[in-house]
Amino acid sequence: MNDDTQAALSYTSYLSLDELLDAQHPRSDEHDELLFIVIHQVYELWFKQVLHEALYLQEQLEAGNTAHAVRTLRRILTIFKVVVAQIDVLETMTPSQFTSFRARLDASSGFQSAQFRVLEAVLGRRDERVFAHYPEGGEQRAQIADAMSRPSLFDSFATYLAVKGYDVPTGRDVTKPLEPSPALQEVLLRVYRDDTGPSVVAEHLVDLDEGMQEWRYRHVKMVERTIGDKTGTGGSSGAHYLRTTLFSPMFPDLWAVRSRL
């Protein structure tokens, strides 16, 4: 970087603050709509960061790098805590305050967050029903489909265990949903009994699974207290659908072994 470039760089230009702070466009004069927009834009920024960290995490796991994997998992877990805490800010908006501008949202809905769908796929979800919100040939649909075709985070963890010398079952079709595997559970029992680096990674993955479930629970309760059982924006089923996502672990084998430890 030359001296002229360094001189021209400022906090504002480095962070593209002019573009960032001009990216909020309320469609009403209601005071609370700006909060709604900012919160969801911040969510998208955090989703972007989590996806960035998750890709790095998979690389570190597949290379057998315990220390870097643990540090990255801790960062992701901390981000999830922030994401969940942001619901507290959103819940300062009363149902009547949200209703005052809700009609202006038209067909837009949080169900259309492609980044969250990609994150779900990275964490192991394989459900083609999510494509209902994304037209064929579109870039977002392609991104989600690509994520569903790649090994999930748990697949990378299985590779990590194999690198660490555990006899991990092979041949799983990574395009299919994660299903409980008795053979893999036997490996996980050994991992926990050995009580070394891999068991630490496993426990952090349980923390991540729990954090995701906490996010889903807080999200559904926020929707219920704001709009009850009304149809969601964009025609979604709102809280009814969100309740169906509760208490479904992403990493079932890590939960299945708990009663045998």
Walk me through this protein's architecture.
The protein is an all-alpha fold and 261 residues long. 63% of the residues lie in helices and 0% in strands. The protein contains 13 helices and no strands. It has helices at residues 3-8, 11-14, 17-21, 33-62, 66-90, 95-102, 114-122, 139-149, 153-163, 182-194, 197-227, 239-244, 252-256. Helix 4 (33-62) runs parallel beside helix 7, helix 4 packs parallel to helix 9 and helix 7 (114-122) packs parallel to helix 8. The longest helix has 31 residues, at 197-227. Mean pLDDT is 88; it is low at 232-237.
Question: Which key features would you list for this structure?
Answer:
261 residues; mainly alpha; globular
Would you summarize the structure shown here?
The protein has 261 residues and is mainly alpha-helical. It has helices at residues 3-8, 11-14, 17-21, 33-62, 66-90, 95-102, 114-122, 139-149, 153-163, 182-194, 197-227, 239-244, 252-256.
